[in-house]
Every structure is written in structure tokens, then in C-alpha cells.
Amino acid sequence: MRKCMKCEEQACVIIRVNDAFCRSCFLQHCTHKFRSSFGKSKVIRDGEKVLLAFSGGNGSSAMLHLVQQGLSKEAQKKLRFKPGLIFIDEGSVLGLSTEQRRKDHRYVLEIMRETGYPYHVTCLEKVMGLGQTSESPLVGTSTTSTSTELTYDNVESDLQKLSISNTAGERLKDMLESAKSMTAKEDLIRRLRCDLLAAVARETGFSKVMLGDSSTRLSVQLLADIAQGRGAQTHLEMGFADDRYGDIIFVRPLREFTSKEVAMYNKLNNVEATVLPRLATKQPSNSSIQRLTEEFVTGLQSDFPSTVSTVFRTGEKMTSDHKKNVTERCAMCQALLDTNVPECSALSATQFSQQISKRPTAIPCSSQSECCGDGDGSCQTATKEIVSHEQLNEALCYGCRLIVRDMKNTSTLPQHILDEAARRARRSKMKESIQDFLLPQ
Fold first, then answer.
1. pLDDT tens digits for the chain (441 residues)?
2. Rounded Cα distance, 272 and 331, in Å
3. Which distant-in-sequence residues (6+ apart) come within 8 Å of 141 by Cβ?
4. Going by C-beta distance under 8 Å and a sequence separation of 6 or more, which residues neighbour residue 178?
5. Which of 126, 132, 149, 326 is deepest in the core (most CB within 10 A)?
6. Rounded to 5 degrees, what are φ and ψ at 273?
7. Is the dihedral of CA 234, 237, 241, 244 positive or negative?
């Protein structure tokens, strides 16, 4: 039997070929890595409110347990931030009934109630109404009670408070059905989930959002993002702190952990985790770029244990120089726009090829007294402002443009994205009209 590399006791965990730990040393190793990530970055200040994104899976369950250990009375150096929990239900994506969705929530609500931390529950379809004043609050279930008393009536009361909007759910479903590929659907859900997390954090008074992403997940995400034209956003996706939302910062304290370490930590601490079904659940490996990349990386990791570490460390060193001269952000993912490139570039060549391959558009009929009924804003358009495909593209980065290009109907996108694209189009038109009167910078 192998011996622990630190104390020479009998090992029970082998992380990599030469990294064997006993139970005590492994838990100390995990706690040190988790705590040191906060010390190195110094992003979270004393007394700051931090929202933990909790899904019930391995990563978020391990993150919650580590936070509880760091805030316990037995901890030598206690964590000093104030945690809260958020769970986002994605049942509308799968077309689940209200009863089934509430049944899936029960397990997650039981865990969140036991912590004694303030917790919130919302639905992914709430993202469709961001920016609209008439919309109901984003948080359907919330409590700030510090009581850990758990009863059937308490959980059932929370489930009844959960606001599930059938109208918003239909809008979300129509938007996903408009996307033709599973790759675009998964990427779109991921972007909207982050938008909703940031919006809930603002509404509930949190300044940081903590994610349970491990180095294995980040390595898969890195290769998938590069394949989808998001190489310029690598420094945001791989770093400890992601500040693309400005006032809300996303942090990843488990980024130094592999998925194997997370699973072993949960096993040794008897931390229960569940996996709720998502859009890509039970899909074949070739259904999307994300699933194919995941199978490639995990398969390579089983034969070559340094695969994830090599990919992760390489991605961690990648930077982008767009921040020096670009201030506009993508209306969908909030990253800096990477589309302002010189004419002699791969992006310009791609855009030129797309333009010349398009079919010629029909000439608007101006002789008729009434609108021709196309509703695309080209002929005596009606009352509602319509965002054209070109205007939408101007407000998006290259990766998000690929999502939009894969959609049959872009009007199904969330209203806050369309409103931002329309605002930029109006501002650009106004600037062009007064260009002759502006002083040179």
C-alpha cells in the first residue's frame, strides 16, 4: 500500500501518480488550497456579502461545505465574508411540469435551509424580463432566517412561494427552439445564467458571486470557447475573479481543484450531492462542441494525468490586449468587444465572405399606402422598434455573433439584449448625423 507523502501514514487518496495522501492530510490540503485562493487575490473584503451559486452538484456542494468549515467556530482563521445561497431552476428548458420542478427543488431547499444562511431560489426564465420595470422580483423564494429547524411544512411553504411564470417559460423555450444547434443552445443558456446571477446579486445586495467551477471544468470550457471564437475572453473565463459585470464580480475558489479532488473531498466528508437534469443530459458526445470537448479532455486525463493541469496552466497565462483601446462591451456576455479589427484580419475576411454570399434583399414597396406586412422595419414600419440583424451584430462579440447566426428568429432573445442593441444603434446614428459638428479628440 502507498504511504502518505506528508506524514508517512497509510494513504487513502491518490490524486496523481506521485501524490498520495491520508485522509487528514488530504482534507488539510484541500482546505489550504481553498483558503489560499482568497489570500492571493484579496478580492473579497471583511464583512462583504458573497452569493454562492448552488446547484446541488459536486462542485457547489464541496464549495458550500468548505465555506461552512471556514465560518465554523472550530476554524483557526475564520473566513470573514457573509455568505448567501442562490439556486436557479432550469426546468423550463427541459419542458418539465410545475409539479416535477418543485419536486426537484425539494432536495436543494432542504440543504440550503440546513445551512442557516440566507438563501434565494429563482427560475432561468426570469432572465427574459431583465430590464423591464413591470416584471416581478427576480427572487421567487428567499429567507434571511438564521434558524436551522427543518420541517416538511417549512420546505413546502418555500416551494409554494416559488414563482414559475408559464409565459416567460414559453418565451425561453421559443428562444432555444430558434437556435438550430445544441452548441448554440448550451452557450446561450450559460450566458443567460450568468446574467441572471448578476441581476439577482444586485437585487439582493450582494457584491460577489462565488462559482464552483473546478480546473477540469475550466479546462474543458477553455478549449470549447476557443473553438467557438471566444479566445479573447480566456483571461476572464480562467481567472479567479471575473469583473466583466463591473459592480458584480464572479470568483472561482475551486479553480485549483480537479474534479477528482472535488469528488474525493465530498466522499471523505460525507457530503451528499445530486445532479439535476439539464439540456445536455444524456446527449451523445457529438451533439455539441462542449460535450465533445468534455469527452476528449476527460478521456485524455485518464491516460495522461497531467492533461488538465497542462491545459489549465496554459490557459491561465493567456491574456488579451483588447482592453487597451476598447471600451464597448458585448450586449450578451458583457465581455469587451473583439470585433474592431483591421481589414487584413481573419475576422474581416470571414465577414466579407458572409456579405457576398448573402442573397440580394428585395426593394421595399413605397408605392403602397399600407405596410406590406413583413414587419422587418423596411417598409412603413409599425409602432414597435425592430432591431435588425446588422444592428444586433454590431453590439455583440464574435462568439455571440455565432450564436445569433445560428438562430432562426433573433427577436426571441431576452429584451435587455435587444434594448441594448437598439440603444447603441440609435446612438451610432445620432453620432453620424452630428459628426461634422464634433470637435476632434
1. 788 888 888 888 888 777 889 999 999 999 999 999 888 888 998 899 999 999 999 999 999 999 999 998 888 788 889 999 999 988 888 888 888 887 777 888 888 989 999 999 888 989 998 876 555 566 655 555 444 444 444 555 555 555 566 788 889 999 999 999 999 999 999 999 999 999 999 999 999 999 999 999 999 999 999 999 998 899 999 999 999 998 999 999 999 999 999 999 999 999 988 888 888 888 898 999 999 999 999 999 988 988 999 999 999 888 766 555 567 899 999 998 888 777 777 777 777 777 777 665 554 444 444 455 544 444 544 445 688 888 999 999 999 999 998 899 999 999 999 999 999 999 988 988 888 887 776
2. 38
3. 109, 119, 120, 121, 122, 158, 159, 161, 162
4. 407, 408, 409, 410, 412
5. 126
6. -135, 155
7. positive
Strands 241-242 and 249-251, sheet pairing: antiparallel
Phi then psi for residue 336, to 5 deg, are -65, 140
Count other C-beta atoms under 10 Å from residue 279's C-beta: 16
Quickly list DSSP for 89-154.
E-HHHHT--HHHHHHHHHHHHHHHHHH-S-EEEEEGGGGGGTT-TTSPPS-SEEE--------HHH
Among 250, 221, 235, smallest CA distance to 323 is for 235
Q: How far apart are CA 364 and CA 380, in angstroms?
A: 9
